[in-house]
Amino acid sequence: MPIPPASSSLPRSLLRDDVYRRLRDAIVDGTFEPGEQLKDGDLAAWLGVSRTPVREALLRLSGSGLVVSQPGRSTTVSPIEESALRDARDVVAAMHELAVRETVGRLTPADIARMRDANRRFTAAAERGDVSAALDADDELHAVPIEVLGNAAVVTVLEQFGPIVRRAERLRFGSEAPAAAERHERFIALCEEQDAAAAAAMAYETWHTLPVSAQARPSTRRDADR
């Protein structure tokens, strides 16, 4: 398993969650590719931790469908399967629809400003071809209603299924970015107008703009080095 360049050691506080997030993000961004074997010893050396939090993180990743574990044998990065992506997309869409419907009337001018700022950063990142920054800004925009809702169960569901959707979105990101920025602006306007029904419907539809078939092979840093 090719390991990325040396990584700084993680703080002991919240170590398990830190390790989980680092491994999750490495799978989502394509650092570890579908079908790639993940060895806990190599991962522990990369992250500067013991094998225990790595093994715990791999178990959590297995539960969310990002890795496939065979006890006593190996752990590999899961392929992007249409059925799993479709299910995750539908769940994520439903959670965002719920959050928007329940919070549109509670969003403050500061919340709306945060959403517009995130969309400006999304647009700028897309124009310069920075996929990671664009998707981070997109996450920040859609996170505002989630934060205002304050429902821990919704957050838990999104933490489990959101990475599956984001992983596929990275493969499709590109020419559709300008249309996404325009959808963001319409969505923000509906939130500002306190049109809960229309904003919630648009939130649901936004996540369904992601197709679930004919997935392309993800590009990675190793591809860029070849």
General description of the model:
The protein has 226 residues and is mainly α. The chain has two domains: 15-79, Orthogonal Bundle (Arc Repressor Mutant, subunit A), CATH 1.10.10.10; 82-207, Up-down Bundle (Four Helix Bundle (Hemerythrin (Met), subunit A)). The protein is 66% helix and 4% strand. The chain is built from ten helices and two strands, in the order αααββααααααα. It has a two-stranded antiparallel sheet. The longest helix has 22 residues, at 82-103. The protein is elongated, with a radius of gyration of 18 Å. Mean pLDDT is 87; it is low at 214-226.
Percent of residues in beta strands: under 5%
Radius of gyration: 18 Å
Fourth CATH level, the homologous superfamily of the largest domain? GntR ligand-binding domain-like
| Count of domain modules | 2
Q: Biggest β-sheet, characterized?
A: 2 strands, antiparallel
CATH architecture term of the largest domain: Up-down Bundle
Average pLDDT rating:
87
Number of E strands: 2
Write the element-wise H/E pattern from the N-terminal end onward: HHHEEHHHHHHH
* Percent in helix: 55-70%
For the largest beta sheet, what order do the strands appear in spatially?
1-2
Determine the N-to-C terminus distance: 17 Å
Instruction: Classify the secondary structure makeup into a structural class.
Output: mainly alpha
The CATH first-level class of the largest domain comes to Mainly Alpha
Report the uncertain regions. Answer: 214-226
- Give the count of helical stretches: 10
**What overall geometry do the principal axes of the alpha carbons give?**
elongated
What is the CATH topology descriptor of the largest domain? Four Helix Bundle (Hemerythrin (Met), subunit A)
